[in-house]
Amino acid sequence: MLNVSPAGAAVAGQRPRGHLRAVGTEPSQHGIEVQLTVNGTPHQLELDTRTTLLDLLREHLHLTGTKKGCDHGQCGACTILLDGRRVLSCLSLAASHDGADITTIEGLSREEQLHPMQRAFIDHDGFQCGYCTPGQICSAIGMLQEWKAGWPSMVTMEGTEHHPHLDIADLRERMAGNLCRCSAYPNIRDAILDVARHSA
């Protein structure tokens, strides 16, 4: 089931990434050992090979900030940062990411200081019910990193003139995978653009 070891840090440093060891003592024949760093804390876990990152975070590590929305990769509520890149945790098997560094909404703040994106969402009232907000924030952080690195979007690939600042059409395209049932999009947009302007 679950074996979270504080000593996992030393073990994690000794074992090469990508090495998985089947757990023979598991009642299920699908048991496997996975080592992950989540929000800066190393964890060594024995999991069913079919466990998604979303279920690992919520059910095993009790980090419930990452939300289970559609569980089909269509709403973006489960978005996390995996080795710095945004991914849908409901579609990602934990066993495929042995040794990975994961950041969830709980791990964005530092020494009780909110991440600039979290602060911007509050300042611009970028949420209503708040269910999609963790995924929106994690996706926005990953999206800005992609934009700064020059990754294209459908908007930029269509020959739109490059802007020194993230424009609204490009932002909408890049964040299209994150849905908000409350339709708080104008405020979400303003929050992301505010962070983009101050970090350019």
Automatic annotation (TrEMBL):
It comes from the Bacteria. Gene3D superfamilies: 3.10.20.30, [2Fe-2S]-binding domain. PROSITE patterns: 2FE2S_FER_1, 2FE2S_FER_2. InterPro entries: 2Fe-2S-bd (IPR002888), 2Fe-2S-bd_dom_sf (IPR036884), 2Fe-2S_ferredoxin-like_sf (IPR036010), 2Fe-2S_ferredoxin-type (IPR001041), 2Fe2S_fd_BS (IPR006058), Aldehyde_Oxdr_Iron-Sulfur (IPR052914), Beta-grasp_dom_sf (IPR012675). SUPFAM superfamilies: 2Fe-2S ferredoxin-like, CO dehydrogenase ISP C-domain like. Pfam families: Fer2, Fer2_2. Residues 32-108 form the 2Fe-2S ferredoxin-type domain. The keyword Cytoplasm does not apply. Residues 1-28 are annotated as: Disordered. Keywords: Iron, Metal-binding, Oxidoreductase. The keyword Oxidoreductase applies. This is 2Fe-2S iron-sulfur cluster-binding protein. The lineage of its organism: Bacteria, Pseudomonadati, Pseudomonadota, Alphaproteobacteria, Acetobacterales.
